[in-house]
Specification:
By secondary structure, this protein is an alpha+beta fold. The protein has 11 helices and 9 strands. Helices cover 48% and strands 16% of the residues. Helix 2 crosses helix 9. The protein is globular. The N terminus is likely disordered.
């Protein structure tokens, strides 16, 4: 969704004017493969188009306008379809049913039918994907920020509960195994947060400087894959820190858990995003250079990070990765970037725990398996919310 400045003619007198634009791209036969779309766009005499077809997913159907992909005579094209026509009547945009979703229920999704719906073209005919991709990239940034926020909320709940709950004669936060779990959750959350903030800054810089674009192009896909993929496991572990109380709706954790898988699906699921990373590196070598230039800003501060980044870059230069290995490559890229950002912006305890566990592999396959030498107390104290 995005904000648009709508023509007031499209909102009749007395109607509440919305501030959001939904998207209707996905069709049942194609899913993420929008080039397989069958919805048709027929030009009209006034320079507009009439759109007909079915959309399997329409995000935010309560909006006043929608960006829609449809097949025009010149190929797949992008259109702005208003809910209201200039004469004040409703457009021929029909909601068939709402989706019964796992979570994200406050934001409706629907199946829609377009029956010669009036729409204006956005961009050139045949360049629908290229036209809409800028909005998709910004929404991928939203996904990264959303997953980082979910992790932070999960950490706040888990660390606060452990600081005030006693069992077996001691506070949970003072018990060694629980401290390992909490610290590991804190490390993951801070790595996600600092990465999301750096990516957001790259988008801000695009307004005044052209050079951040290659970095943002690649980093968006890399971080969208990794941070959104880590979210569900992270929230599930945080929920478990509350025990049975975490499984009860009153705690708020079940809602976090239901929301956590969505950002990994929105705007391209994991496989789609990883293939996009491979495509971006192949078509835009400057994006790869910009990505490693960002990592190199921490060069010399942590030898283990330097070695990890050098090996990663050599492997990419030697031939990158086959499709079947794309997830492993993107994961390594995300960890290298997160490590560089933490080295520059986090404290020694956080950096040491991240590098040892994520880059050197000194950990198990579950949260709570950090090296015993980790400064658990300082990491948890940094993340635990203060209630005054």
């Amino acid at each position: 969704m995005t904000s648009l400045d709508y023509d007031p003619r499209f909102v009749p007198a007395g109607e509440k004017r919305g501030a959001l634009c939904g998207m209707a791209m996905t069709e049942r036969q194609g899913g993420s493969d929008v080039r397989a779309n069958r919805a048709r766009a027929v030009p009209t005499a006034d320079g507009a188009y009439e759109l007909s077809g079915h959309k399997w997913f329409c995000s935010a159907p309560m909006c006043d306008g929608f960006l829609v992909l449809a097949q025009a005579p010149g190929g797949l094209s992008c259109f702005l379809l208003p809910r209201w026509l200039p004469d004040g009547t409703r457009n021929r945009f029909h909601i068939q049913r709402l989706k019964d979703k796992l979570g994200n229920r406050s934001n409706a999704s629907s199946e829609t039918e377009l029956d010669r719906a009036w729409a204006r073209p956005v961009g050139e005919e045949g360049r629908g994907v290229a036209t809409i991709i800028e909005m998709v990239n910004h929404t991928r940034l939203d996904c990264v920020l959303g997953s980082a926020a979910l992790m932070r909320q999960a950490v706040a709940q888990a660390t606060h509960h452990a600081a005030h709950r006693s069992a077996f004669g001691a506070r949970l936060s003072d018990q060694p195994l629980m401290r390992n779990v909490l610290a590991d959750l804190c490390v993951e959350s801070e790595a996600a947060t600092v990465s999301a903030m750096r990516l957001a800054r790259a988008y801000d810089e695009q307004q005044t400087r052209p050079d951040p674009r290659p970095f943002a192009r690649l980093a968006t896909a890399v971080l969208k894959y990794w941070i959104c993929k880590r979210g569900p496991a992270h929230v599930a572990e945080a929920l478990e820190c509350l025990g049975g109380n975490g499984y009860v709706e009153d705690s708020g954790m079940p809602r976090l858990f239901r929301e956590s898988p969505l950002n990994s699906i929105w705007e391209g699921s994991g496989n789609v995003i990883c293939l996009d990373v491979l495509r971006a590196m192949e078509r835009n070598p400057e994006a790869t250079d910009a990505f490693f230039d960002e990592i190199a800003q921490a060069e010399g501060a942590e030898p283990r990070l330097d070695a990890y980044a050098a090996k990663l870059r050599d492997d990419i230069a030697a031939g990158g990765a086959h499709e079947a290995e794309a997830r492993r490559l993107v994961e390594r890229m995300a960890l290298a970037l997160q490590g560089s950002l933490l080295v520059r912006h986090a404290g020694p305890a956080m950096v040491s725990a991240f590098v040892a566990s994520r880059l050197e592999g000194d950990r198990g396959l579950a949260f709570g398996t950090l090296p015993s030498s980790t400064d658990f107390e300082s990491i948890i104290d940094r993340a635990r919310p203060r209630i005054r």
